[in-house]
């Protein structure tokens, strides 16, 4: 009889894990407390970014973050509150925001990301219903200061073997023919790709259905039965489910549920916003980041999505901060003068919680305490990018196989 695997969390990390485990012939069940039609894995910017090798915890981030905290339209914000979780997270972040950490993180993230891209290519060859495209990613800037930072980051990516082109203003104009770009130049990461996240989630669900994976939406996992160092059952609001293995993929909600699995995890949600203009005719053709405002721009089939801001907050903070959405809109109109985007209505503005660890690194590992528990959380702003590779690693770790890429940095 094949092993019963219970995956807690049906976001992109949970579903990719389910895919690779089911492919190995295991009996997989996914539990999610929502109806699995929305959440962080749906409204994100859809970028697959091997170029993003520098984790959020990096030198200079704390000083920059403090400066931004006094600007209500800024792209990064830590919501101040008296909370031991926030203090612990902040202290850990401070300890990781150094060059040594970045140097160790970069090759690990590159390898995970390139593996993911290969796996996305495989999916796309099978059925590209999710509009996977390889146009690279343009980092666009308007100031000499940011140009120097972007050139420096480009050099780091180049040293790691990634495709990088440094573009003048004229070269940007030649490449981006969809609309006028008012910039002084750009860095083009040619190894990057993008897709339509909602369509990819739909594709995954279809694949899982064909593989016979059981998916329980609207089913909240409340606890576990643990006997002799093993999780033997998953306790939900719909009853108890016997299990042989558990995968924790609960995104921003992980710390609380992890405690029930004897794991102490520091992780906070990084709230971000996006809005999508449907069937927009004149629009940028190349996925871009408008660097001074940290706004992501992604063409997705006939639509275009704009996303941005990172508010380190808590899971009950479901409000839409209109000032920050204004910051996104102002940045778009400043970089693309011909687009002149209007403020989206509140109900047209999507938000999602990025699961952020203080090291800026995902956690992909076997638990030290419960031998049948595998953890896959904390992918912050790179969860879509890293999901297929994470799913593959989860299946390899769970089955005790050697892993496709080293996992030492994902502890
Ligand atoms: C504005 C924005 C833009 C982004 N752009 C990009 C991008 O371009 N590229 C990229 O790579 N990443 C991007 N990201 C990040 C990416 O979206 C996330 O890293 C990714 O979606 C996280 O996936 P996840 O499966 O870990 O978490 P989630 O998608 O949050 O899934 C976790 C699931 O667990 C469920 N759950 C939690 N607790 C329980 C419980 N007790 N019982 C049952 N179910 C439970 C939740 O309901 C949820 O569905 C962006 C994020 C934002 C906000």
From TrEMBL:
Domain (FAD dependent oxidoreductase) spans 5-397
Q: What is its EC number?
A: 1.-.-.-
What protein name applies here? Answer: NAD(P)/FAD-dependent oxidoreductase
Tell me which species this is from: Pseudofulvibacter geojedonensis
EC main group = oxidoreductase
Q: Which keywords, in A-to-Z order, does the entry hold?
A: Oxidoreductase
What GO molecular function terms would the record report?
oxidoreductase activity
Per its UniProt record, what PANTHER family does this chain match?
GLYCINE OXIDASE (PTHR13847:SF289), SARCOSINE DEHYDROGENASE-RELATED (PTHR13847)
Looking at the record's lineage, which domain of life comes first? Bacteria
Q: Which InterPro entries match?
A: FAD-dep_OxRdtase, FAD/NAD-bd_sf
């Amino acid at each position: 009889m094949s092993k019963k695997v219970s995956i807690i969390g049906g976001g992109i990390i949970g579903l990719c894990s389910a895919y690779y485990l089911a492919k190995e012939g295991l009996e997989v069940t996914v539990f999610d407390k929502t109806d699995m039609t929305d959440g962080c894995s749906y409204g994100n910017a859809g970028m697959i970014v091997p170029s993003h090798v520098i984790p959020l915890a990096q030198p200079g981030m704390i000083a920059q973050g403090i400066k931004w905290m006094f600007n209500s339209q800024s792209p990064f914000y830590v919501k101040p509150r008296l909370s031991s979780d926030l203090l612990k997270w902040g202290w850990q972040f401070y300890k990781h925001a150094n060059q040594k950490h970045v140097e160790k993180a970069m090759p690990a993230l590159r390898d995970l990301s390139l593996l993911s891209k290969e796996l996305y290519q495989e999916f796309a060859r099978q059925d590209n219903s999710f509009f996977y495209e390889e146009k690279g990613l343009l980092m666009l800037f308007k100031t000499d200061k940011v140009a120097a930072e972007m050139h420096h980051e480009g050099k780091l990516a180049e040293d790691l073997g990634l495709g990088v082109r440094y573009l003048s203003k004229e070269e940007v104009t030649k490449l981006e023919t969809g609309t006028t770009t008012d910039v002084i130049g750009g860095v083009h990461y040619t190894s990057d790709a993008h897709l339509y996240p909602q369509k990819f989630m739909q594709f995954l669900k279809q694949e899982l259905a064909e593989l016979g994976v059981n998916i329980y939406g609207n089913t909240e996992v409340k606890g576990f039965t643990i006997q002799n160092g093993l999780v033997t059952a998953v306790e939900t609001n719909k009853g108890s489910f016997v299990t042989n293995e558990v995968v924790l993929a609960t995104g921003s909600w992980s710390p609380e549920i992890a405690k029930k699995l004897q794991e102490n995890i520091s992780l906070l949600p990084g709230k971000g916003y996006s809005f999508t203009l449907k069937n927009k005719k004149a629009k940028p053709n190349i996925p871009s980041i408008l660097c001074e405002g940290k706004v992501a721009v992604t063409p997705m089939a006939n639509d275009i999505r704009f996303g941005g801001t990172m508010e380190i907050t808590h899971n009950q903070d479901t409000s839409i901060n209109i000032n920050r959405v204004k910051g996104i809109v102002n940045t778009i109109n400043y970089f693309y003068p011909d687009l002149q985007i209007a403020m989206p209505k509140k109900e047209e503005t999507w938000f999602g919680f990025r699961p952020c660890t203080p090291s800026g690194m995902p956690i992909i590992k076997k638990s030290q305490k419960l031998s049948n528990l595998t953890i896959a959380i904390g992918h912050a702003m790179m969860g879509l990018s890293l999901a297929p590779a994470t799913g593959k690693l989860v299946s390899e770790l769970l089955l005790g196989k050697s892993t496709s890429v080293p996992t030492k940095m994902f502890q």
